[in-house]
Amino acid sequence: MLTSSHHAAHHADVVIVGAGVSGLAAAQHLIAAGVTVTVLEAAADAGGRMATASADGFRLDRTGQLLTTASAELSRTPGLEALTLRPFAPGVLVHTDGRQLRAGALTPARALASGSLDQARLSAALGRLAALPEEKLLARPERTARAALRSRGLPPRTAHGVLRPLLSALLRDPELTTSSRVADLALRTFARGRLAVPEGGAAALPDQLAAALPPDTVHTGVRVRSVATNRVTTEEHGTFDCRSVLLATGARAAADLLPGLRVPAFHEVTVLHHATAGPLPWDGSLLLDADPAWPVSHTAVMSAVDPTRAPAGRSLVTTTVLGPPPPVRTVASRLARLYESATRDWELLAVHHTPEAVPAMPPPYDPRRPVRVLAGLYVCGDHRDTNTVQGALRSARRAAHAVLRDFGIPLPAPQEPALPVAA
Ligand SMILES: Cc1cc2nc3c(=O)[nH]c(=O)nc-3n(C[C@H](O)[C@H](O)[C@H](O)COP(=O)(O)OP(=O)(O)OC[C@H]3O[C@@H](n4cnc5c(N)ncnc54)[C@H](O)[C@@H]3O)c2cc1C
């Protein structure tokens, strides 16, 4: 919260609107370059969409984000040095045609040795994508991911049984209307690392960014009503003078504050958390459901991936549905099949529905959308890049660099320390 005496004394070079990961990351980049920053956040807590609730020893992500260990931006963002990623088991487990197969975990030679030509082809295709420089990938013809999947001559079992559910989960887009270039970028990142989650819950990431900022940088409970290049007006805390303003809200709030900005379509997502009565003997695999007749996109025993998320002796199962909340009985019955375990005793801990979870990215889509509106006014967030944590962080770095250029401050040399990955 902000006191009025505090506000009267307050002035910063840059006012950032929004304390989601993009706003916090931008603050980190600017402060590291010697610029003074104030971050104003409407909600009671920082973190935006990356929120985690605690309940009876369980850590429940509101949104269940999947990160990857290959995300360069996690290593490039100051303040995340202490972030630990908990990786899923290699590749993904796909439930397709009534059986489960692991995909994306083997080299082509090993897949061949295991007797699966389809798996070998898939591993080879992923390997080629992993090796492709990003510029080459972004120069490929662009259409929807669904059309690209149909045209690439892959066997139906690979295209529809594995890649379709994998891409739907990575893009949070069940119809695969996303740009094929963005889909290729997502597959490339998948192929280069391991899917992972932050230890302790999604909120660990913004919490660490916020904790590494100087005291009194972030002010929560402050809703911004209007912005100009040198001034921000809030609903209840007066005005803030500054040299530049950076909007780091979601796409809709950004367009409300800057009416020239486009409001994209959105994908909606529902996340369900179940606690099992006892430990569920299941590894830390991400399990994809390839049967579109059922509502589940992907599910995992999150406590097997990150043991800090459940109390001893219980397991936490987190399930993502790409759409509105389905009847909970339907989900429970599908989970019983997917986990080959009775779910009668499972306790439903939470259902989180986010109607505007992520902005849609249909073709033609520029994953490096401009972040400088004009000198003094900038915008960042997942709607200016890919609709991911990685995209939000990268847009924040691009926007911070645009501010520094306009201030005449030299850009910092790139640093890429390795991020700790838990075994
Ligand atoms: C259900 C769901 C699943 C997801 N799954 C994944 C995934 O698997 N992998 C992945 O990488 N990403 C995923 N994402 C996307 C990822 O969470 C977002 O891309 C990222 O968190 C966006 O961060 P941001 O800072 O751009 O925006 P936000 O987190 O939306 O932050 C914007 C902040 O601005 C504040 N604000 C808005 N208006 C005002 C105002 N007027 N004044 C002051 N403050 C204001 C908001 O309160 C908010 O805190 C998912 C998101 C959801 C919702």
Total count of domains: 3
Q: Name the overall outline.
A: globular
* SS field, number of helical segments: 14
Largest sheet properties: 7 strands, mixed
By secondary-structure content and strand pairing, the structural class works out as alpha+beta
CATH topology of the largest domain: FAD/NAD(P)-binding domain
- Assigned CATH superfamily of the largest domain: FAD/NAD(P)-binding domain
Binned strand content: 15-25%
Average pLDDT works out at: 92
CATH class of the largest domain: Alpha Beta
As a percent range, the share of helical residues equals 25-40%
Strand order of the main beta sheet, please? 8-7-16-17-18-15-19
Identify the CATH architecture of the largest domain: 3-Layer(bba) Sandwich
Distance from N terminus to C terminus (CA atoms, Å) equals 39 Å
Cα Rg: 22 Å
**Heterogens:** flavin-adenine dinucleotide
**Segments where pLDDT lies below 50 for 5+ residues?**
none
Total number of strands: 21
